[in-house]
Amino acid sequence: GIAQVAQLKFEGLVIDTSARIVYVDGQKTELSPKEYDLLLYLAETANIALTREKILNSVWGYDFFGDDRTLDTHVKLLRGSLGPYRRFIVTIRGVGYRFEA
Asked: Angle at Cα 92 formed by Cα 88 and Cα 93, nearest 5°?
């Protein structure tokens, strides 16, 4: 049979997981590998409040030695790339982030 194209779709935001391509209203968006990993992780755990630690562990790995600024910087970059869908990434003050679509 024909292989299923794995896509996560939230309104006009489409994540093609097989090709690792993200579309914003039909336009291909250039994301860094980490931005993509971050978006995919957030989208796959939609509507769940995630601590910074959990996101760093899941996206960067347990052996990552950095700080919260790394995550915040990537979230900022990612929001910049998502255009109108930046609103999907909600900041939970003192905790972390939640993908809310």
From this structure: 140
* Alpha-carbon distance values, 87 to 10, 50, 101 (Å): 12, 16, 8
Q: What is the pLDDT of residues 42-66, one digit of tens each?
A: 999 999 999 999 999 999 998 887 7
DSSP-assigned beta bridge partners for residue 90? 98
Cβ proximity of 43 and 10 under 8 Å: yes
Separation between Cα atoms, residue 51 and residue 64, nearest integer Å: 15
Give yes or no for a contact between 15 and 82, defined as CB atoms under 8 angstroms apart.
Answer: no
Question: Would you call 27 exposed, middle or buried from its count of C-beta atoms within 10 A (0-12, 13-18, 19+)?
Answer: exposed
Total-model pTM:
0.91
Contact 41, 59 (CB under 8 A): yes
